[in-house]
Design brief:
Length: 191
């Protein structure tokens, strides 16, 4: 699947809840393959970013499936971990704001408060139960993706925070976005 299959705001499906799915079905395997190819095709078009993760809703399939990059630091490592019906069962650690972007929100980045540690329950592709502890960037990414399965995008957490919005310039540096002119009344973001 190509990057053009990735939906972006203001597509209203991004604010709808996804449904639980059964693992080890042919349709789930096909979905995971489509998500992976779309995420990698997107990455191949971006000089300064990696596809850290993707939720099924982002290819317009409202099912609780997310893929998380196995190694965030190595672009050559193009494998993902699949989490089916993932849920956070415990929040731990502090709440820290850090930068996030989203393949479904063009040219807007944000400094989003998230818990630094979480415990997650999910199913793997073969249907076995997975329990994992995550911290740091991985915990952030998983919270972002599970939000997608619940119809929440990262900007919803910072909607009224004028200093939390950024864009990426041509050299890959984050630059502040003017909240009043670009963000606050932007129907594409909040419709
Ligand atoms: Zn996202």
């Amino acid at each position: 699947m190509k990057k053009e299959a990735i939906i972006t705001l203001p597509n209203p499906h991004l604010r709808q809840k996804s449904v639980r799915v059964s693992p080890h079905s042919e349709s789930t395997a096909k979905l995971v393959a489509d998500m992976t190819s779309a995420a990698l095709d997107w990455e191949d078009s971006r000089p300064h970013e990696i596809s850290a993760a993707l939720a099924a809703v982002q290819i317009d399939t409202l099912e609780r499936v997310v893929i998380i990059r196995s190694d965030f630091d190595d672009k050559a490592h193009r494998e993902f971990t699949v989490l089916i019906n993932p849920e956070i069962i415990k929040y731990e650690g502090d709440v820290v704001a850090d930068y996030e972007g989203c393949l479904s929100i063009k040219n807007v980045y944000g400094k989003v408060p998230r818990h630094t540690k979480i415990r997650v329950k999910a199913l793997s592709e073969d249907g076995s139960e997975v329990r994992l502890k995550a911290e740091g960037f991985l915990a952030r990414v998983i919270q972002h993706e599970i939000d997608h399965t619940n119809g929440i995008v990262f900007i919803d957490h910072i909607q009224d925070q004028p200093d939390a919005f950024f864009t990426l310039d041509d050299s890959g540096e984050l630059q502040p976005l003017d909240y009043d002119t670009v963000i606050k009344d932007n129907d594409e973001l909040w419709a």
